[in-house]
Amino acid sequence: MRLVEPVVELGRGLWRTLNSMFEKPVTIQYPEEKRPVRPRFRGRHVLKRYENGLEKCIGCALCAAACPADAIFVEAAENTDENRFSPGERYASTYEINMLRCIYCGYCEDACPTEAIVLGDNYELSFTSRSQAIYPKEMLLEPVPDTASLTPRKVEPGKYNRSVPEMKDSQD
Ligand code: SF4
Ligand code: SF4
Question: What is the pTM of this model?
């Protein structure tokens, strides 16, 4: 009786091993194949644009103030109708995020009044020096939609006076 039990257990173990040899492998062939991320995943930041191509960021630096890791640096400059980057008075002439400091808390996203900064689904962050870890605006800004033109651009005078889009419901 004492011998039966270990033999059964051994048999079960071997059966499990044998069985797994015929199971579909779970290895994902990264980087050719990428695993979809969870809906609440927070990856690399993206600076968004409106559908017309204008930048959502107005250079207010609220994201930098909210950042607990002091990872964001913003410098603002004035928009003009001849040289317009974003709606309203100002745009971010410099926008940098130090990815070595970022803890992906999402506070910057929450603080932004125009929903310009968003933590996206890109997890491919690699750099070989400290300076490469500072992502400038050019890296963060999303591409211009096909139907829109580049920024800066000349626009109709007085057309983009509001920095923050009008909301249908103040609770939005
Ligand atoms: S996710 Fe958090 S730590 Fe990273 S830049 Fe935004 S506020 Fe700062
Ligand atoms: S990302 Fe948002 S909070 Fe940060 S500077 Fe631009 S508009 Fe302001």
Answer: 0.82
